[in-house]
Amino acid sequence: EASIHTIHIKNFIYSFSCIYNLLGYCLTYIKFLPLLLVSKATVKPFMLSFFFIFFFCPLLVFPCGSRSREWEYFDGRCYFFSIQRTNWLKAKAKCQSWNSQLVVIQDAAKQNFIQSRTRNEHYWIGLTDMDNEGEWRWIDGTNYLNGFTNWHKGEPNDSEGKEDCVQMHNDGEWNDLPCNNENNFYICEKPLPS
After folding, report:
1. What is the pTM of this model?
2. Per the CATH hierarchy, to which homologous superfamily does domain 72-191 belong?
3. What span, in angstroms and rounded, lies between the C-alpha atoms of 130 and 14?
4. pLDDT at residue 94 above 90?
């Protein structure tokens, strides 16, 4: 547990320092843009500056894309935390409509990131045994049997034989629930834009 926190802190400091330094370069280029425009001797540097300012700098501010400002970046992927409650199937469809999927949690670092954003609410994740009772599967095919889990004590219990989808509780632990339950938010994930 302590090592995970240490890794998160180191990654945050490194990421912050990289972004801080690169944003400084962006601001410097923007500051001197008028000078570059009036000088004929700086056509090539201007073109490089133009490319840097208008194509690279926005990626620093919005790594998930400038049109995806509501998505959050973590460890090479982008995450959307819904503000509307819905059932699991509608959540899955909504994520797919954005070229993403319900979140797949493979390790404690990702679990901690998700949990830090979902306090005091319940969220659908991409785990189900809908196809075959008791055989839990991540929607992207990630191996469930040899992977990370964070079930609440006594879960999954398939109460009344109807609980085939998984929610993350407000405490971060997992619970199986009927897929048609409409009282959960959802989390989508997608790779960084290329």
Report:
1. 0.70
2. Mannose-Binding Protein A, subunit A (3.10.100.10)
3. 41
4. yes
